[in-house]
Design goal:
Pfam families: Cupin_1
CATH architecture of the largest domain: Sandwich
Protein name: Germin-like protein
Keywords: Apoplast, Disulfide bond, Manganese, Metal-binding, Secreted, Signal
Oligomer: single chain
CATH topology of the largest domain: Jelly Rolls
Order of helices and strands: HEEEEEEEEEEHHH
Subcellular location: Secreted, Extracellular space, Apoplast
InterPro entries: Cupin_1 (IPR006045), Germin (IPR001929), Germin_Mn-BS (IPR019780), RmlC-like_jellyroll (IPR014710), RmlC_Cupin_sf (IPR011051)
Amino acid sequence: MASYALVLAILALASSQAFAGDPSPLQNFCVADNTSNVFVNGLVCKDPKLVKAEDFFYKGLDIPGDTTNPLGSKVTPVTVAQLAGLNTLGISLVRIDFAPNGLNPPHTHPRATEILTVLEGTLYVGFVASNSDAGNKLFTKVLNKGDVFVFPVGLIHFQFNIGHTNVVAIAALSSQNPGVITIANAVFGSKPPISDYVLAKAFQVDEKVIDYLQSRFWIYNN
């Protein structure tokens, strides 16, 4: 009986991992119907008879993003929100532009692993592992043109332009809608705000420090 229960537990765990990402499509395609008022986990399919080649096409990723902001970076997404044909396909991508010293600040994608390729310039990138007895280990690397780095799903990561020229990078993500949680924005810019007492205790600082941080203008980069 004990071995039978163990097998069931292993199967349950395997099943939960197998369905942790976007579900697999059950047809050739399911182009998102953005006119539908039906709310589902994902987006409703357009009638296949009405699908056109344009539903699988996006134009403009060659256009540099505007990096004239305090972060010095700009993310241009191509998710299901911009390309309806991505619906149910479990993939999307972004272009990221960086001015010199530009930063894509620490953030997570709750539904996707990210694989990034540098097309021009030099980036300092990294991610932080989840809590463990040894602490939260930081993995970093300096990337040059043609280099590739992967950020595991859900982990906090960042990219920073340490060079003197602009940087262009392309990243693919393993979800049609990967989501993004920018850490500073979420912690200090939530609406309504998190109690300053809670944050002061969590960060072990004076509440005045939290009040100052919560008063800042937080930039939403993507």
